[in-house]
Task: structure prediction
Amino acid sequence: MKTSPLNATLRVPCTLNPTPNAFWAGLLLLLTSWCVVVPASHAALTVTNLYNTHAVPGYEMVDDIGGIGHDLANSFTTGGSSVLLNSVSVEFAGGFVGIGSAFTAYLYNDATGMPGASLVTFTGNSDPHSGGTFAYTPSAPTTLLPSTTYWLVFNAQAGAPDEQYPIYTTADVSQTGDPGWSIGDSFVYRDVISGTPGSWIGQNVLAPPNALQFELDTTAVPEPSRTLLFGSGLASLLFVRRRRSFPATRL
Result:
């Protein structure tokens, strides 16, 4: 009696057994992850108006005279990718009163076109009344989100009276920098009475634009290109090892 084909033992050759080529392909991918050229992240000028012509009279004052003063702020908008904020450089005019160290810079978020809440405090020269360009760095790592408006806020309300820090301004609304980045055309200000700040006030709409002059320096957030390649190569090698340890059985 002949055995029915349906009762015969089905023998299917395994096609999933790893070949030496699979092993070497995984190893090559693993090694490539360390040899591939990945652009290094580096600090770079992102946007500036420092080199624009000064406005007339040329500066605006961050001050505290006898407990009465005012803060200044200017917005900027980021480009299309996240970056790490390295520093902001601010240009000051010289020749004004300064008997203490009261100047402070902050980064604020945006609240419907005005400074909202403080995100980070900058560290740097707290007595720049002599004039010049000074760099201020965030006191904590700070990532700026893409296509987002932020504010630089400056004040002199540290309890030391008679402080004047004039920041240069420009009526030239152009800027130099990376695509998508921009600096707000006009600063805003708020009065501070005995340490209590009032509401932010914009410039007269009939007045010409007048922006504070500063420069932002950032670093691109690193892309995980090398990590992805390494992970892919390692996964390939583990797969090959697993298949060798547990060969496919025949049915």
